[in-house]
Amino acid sequence: MKRRNRCGVLVAGLAGMLSPVVGFGVGLSCPVVSARAQFSDDDPRVVAAKRLTLMRLMKRVTVNLENHRLEDVVQFIRDVTQADIEPIWIDDKHDVGLDPDATVTLKAKHVTALQLLEMVLEKVSDGSDFDSATWQFTKYGGFEFGPKERLNVHRRVEIYDINDLLMDVPDYDNAPRFDLNTVFQAGGQTGGGGGSGQSPFQDQGTDIQRRDREEKVQDITDLIMATVEPEQWVDNGGEAATMREIRGSLFVNAPDYIHRQINGYPWWPSRYQHAGMKNGRRYVSLDGSYDFAEAELETTIDINATP
């Protein structure tokens, strides 16, 4: 869940990993916010563009690829889905990028075009299971995919409220024992009126031991950096993402693909977002029904073809 504070700063919850809390925002200076407000992620045009692209990539396909060029496979996905997707190729200015002449061999049956794209990226990344290449949305609603080193150039700051995780919830495993005999004895001594002043509750125990707040904050940040793209955090020796806690909120400056794994996409139905763990790493997968009418497409049949 999210809202904006007086300066328009996005406040979001850590869905799945961290529980969302509504109503807490950290004030930032308005000049900082104005740099993002011109074309923010909440702009209806941006949200509509992202939803339309992702909706088109939900189209299911069945393919059999045998040593097909990556550039041809990408064009095939474009043609089938009519989605506006942008690969990050190697060029004269960048030695890091996707090789259009890389070959792809795989079979996929009744998978979404997005899943097919992820499978292709895994193949051209030498089977490194998304360690070097992935996809993300730009702040303008574009869909780009390629090496993380190139995607890391585009970052944004999100604020995640963790106040609920910092609260000490009482553990009532030492509830007091109620001594009924004490009540009867007190009543007999006073002739049925008044009381002896002795409490019928025995062995009330002591207060629970509370952990230091800084320790709890450290545990939360350690958990995120250990499970969400561990190699990309500056604290882990990476260059893509930083995180700082202020007044119960985590300020995370990171590329979109990292924010996706923390919080998913608030504009996509939560029932079609599934968080999980694989090899000790967190991931968020996206799925959903394909609304061809809204996507302005004419057919709902699966595509069984080869580029």
Q: Name the strands of the widest sheet in spatial order.
A: 1-2-8-12-11
Q: Can you count the beta strands?
A: 15
Helical element count? 9
The gyration radius over C-alpha positions equals: 27 Å
Chain-averaged pLDDT: 77
Strand content: 15-25%
Order of helices and strands: EEHHEHEEHEEHEHEHEHEEHEEE
Number of domains: 2
Distinctive features:
five-stranded mixed sheet; 2 domains; alpha+beta; 9 helices; three-stranded mixed sheet; 307 residues; 28% helix; disordered C terminus; elongated
Describe what this molecule looks like in 3D.
This protein is α+β, with helices and mostly antiparallel strands and 307 residues long. It has 2 domains: 3-166 and 213-304, no CATH class; 172-209, no CATH class. It is 28% helix and 24% strand. It is built from 9 helices and 15 strands. It has helices spanning 30-37, 44-56, 70-81, 113-124, 148-151, 163-166, 180-189, 213-227, 256-263, and strands spanning 3-4, 10-12, 60-69, 85-87, 103-112, 133-137, 143-147, 155-161, 177-178, 201-202, 242-246, 249-255, 273-278, 281-286, 303-304. It has a 5-stranded mixed β-sheet. It has a 3-stranded mixed β-sheet with strand order 5-3-15. β6 and β7 form a beta hairpin. The longest helix is centred in the last third of the chain and has 15 residues, at 213-227. The two termini are 41 Å apart. Mean pLDDT is 77; it is low at 1-39 and 298-306.
Summarize the structure.
The chain is 28% helix and 24% strand. With 307 residues, the chain is α+β, with helices and mostly antiparallel strands. A hairpin with a 2-residue loop joins strand 11 (242-246) and strand 12 (249-255).
